[in-house]
Amino acid sequence: MPEVKLIKRFIETENGHRLREFESAGGYGSLRKIIGEGWDAQQVIDILKASNLRGLGGAGFPTGLKWSFVPKDIEGPKYLVVNADESEPGTFKDRHIISGAPHLLIEGAVIAAFCIEAEDIYIYIRGEYYEPARIMEQAIEEAAEAGYIGEDFLGSGHTVRVHLHRGAGAYICGEETALLSSLEGGKGWPKLKPPFPAIKGLFGKPTIVNNVETLSQVPIILDKGAEYFASLGIERNGGTRLFGVSGHVKRTGIYELPLGTPMKELIYEHCGGIRNDRKLKAVIPGGSSCPVLTAEQAASINMDFDSLAGIGSMLGSGGLIVMDETTDLVQILWRICRFYAFESCGQCTPCREGTGWMTRIMERIAKGEGTVQDIDDLKEVAEQIMGNTVCPLGDAAALPVVSFLSKFRADFEAQVGPRRVHAGAVVTQAEAEEN
Amino acid sequence: MSVRMSDEDEKKITELIGHYPQKRAAIGDVLYMAQQNFGHLGPEVELYVAGLLDLPVTYVHQVVSFYNMYLQNPVGRNLIMLCDNVSCTLCGASGLVEHLAKKLGIGPGETTKDDKFTLWTVECLGACELAPCVMIGEKLYGRMTPEKLDEALDAVEQTDDA
Description:
The complex is a heterodimer. By secondary structure, chain A is of the alpha/beta class. Chain A contains 20 helices and 14 strands. Chain A folds into three domains: about 10-230, Rossmann fold (3-Layer(aba) Sandwich); about 245-325, Ubiquitin-like (UB roll) (Roll), CATH 3.10.20; about 330-435, de novo design (two linked rop proteins) (Up-down Bundle), CATH 1.20.1440.230. The relative contact order of chain A is 0.12. Chain B has helices at about 5-15, 25-40, 45-55, 55-65, 85-90, 95-105, 145-160, and strands at about 80-85, 115-120, 135, 140. Chain B has seven helices and four strands; from the N terminus they run ααααβααβββα. Chain B is of the alpha+beta class. Chain B is elongated, with a radius of gyration of 18 Å.
């Protein structure tokens, strides 16, 4: 099946990051429509619900439902926050939207702000995205000059201001409550939920946090209709998604395909197969926190939220990391462990300490100093972290460990020595397996 | 050198604060400005920023030390951020580290004697389709090879020498 370029059409428009070209491609049409025809928020939310649009940052929460959680008719400000802190290893789709179609994001964000009655939109963009931030800044200026944002935008009687906020290098700030802590001027420490941000978010006010890609789909859904969008995907998983593929494929990049597309099709048709025509070994399906898949699983799985959840993994951010038969998975898991240890915010003990323990054990194994016992210890530490932290970073660190060890245990056993029981006594690998 | 930004910069801070209902929310941008002015964010700069935003200096220090991009210590004039996360490792990042060790004589976390380059190995830069990738200053370079890295460094050196 060819790509379905709902978002990519704008990204691939020449100079599509500039206002005039975006308008020529039909941009801002949905915003004009809902304002011009005097729609109310509920109409938009109903369409989003019918479209089965789900949060494309990773969690997959239904977008229309999320917006409907914001209390109506209450005093004081509300906020829309755009999560552009794309930092999950293997994920790069939002960078393409911000750089190639920033106005599409603005259009979607303004519609969202209109629906939840927010007058301020904060776009939280990761610090390392210097050039994308400059492009975004220019787009915000263009949108303001053209009257798509600002006071009484498009004669709507509403006001919306768009602020660009640069992060400063912290993976944890992609987690929505950490992002809000950071946006408030603090260190990026996640907060316990409930209260959910929709009730008590930024500066203590009702706040919706949406991912870049999610918001960018909104104007397209309003343009093409909920039915069309929902029909592209499968049940409860509407529309398309920008899948980002990296690692050992012939053609890395972003591919926009309907949810439910077979992974095999993405890897072997769109990406041209494995580099040097080697055999596939493993795939991380949606950013480094998602449980790894074996080649057999990758060959038969469809890429939608529910299918991947059904085999104990996740679609996550839609960033696939493809690894061929030459890959040393011990080195890869060590690297993943280092990442989460480095990025743990330090708030919860199981994550702060556990990620460090896992990294040190993996280092021993990777350097050929590990034992069979280390493999078991590693798994136990991971299981002690899971579910015991304020935010999902703990799980994100533990899930790769558990999945690598359960699916590729032989790769790890091949690099460790026999179990050390106590001084002088050694249990051989065969004996250890018997126990 | 007394730690103070120009009047113009201080006026800009008032403008930055205007984006938020609370003054302290502007700390991120103010720290970036301070870093631009002073190179890195040492104790004197933290004290100065604390004064600008009516915050305790310990609060400022916590923020500075939490984020990787706020520099607590000086770095060379050009910061090389080399990603060695999963996708970049799969595509040959370690070869680039070895190449830089030979070419510049520095490893991760080190600075050349002439203060021209500091090398950091960093976490995912969000450009995995271009793996292995490197940032030098604010510019992203993708699909790097030792040869392309040489070219990029040469270009940087020319502007650095100018």
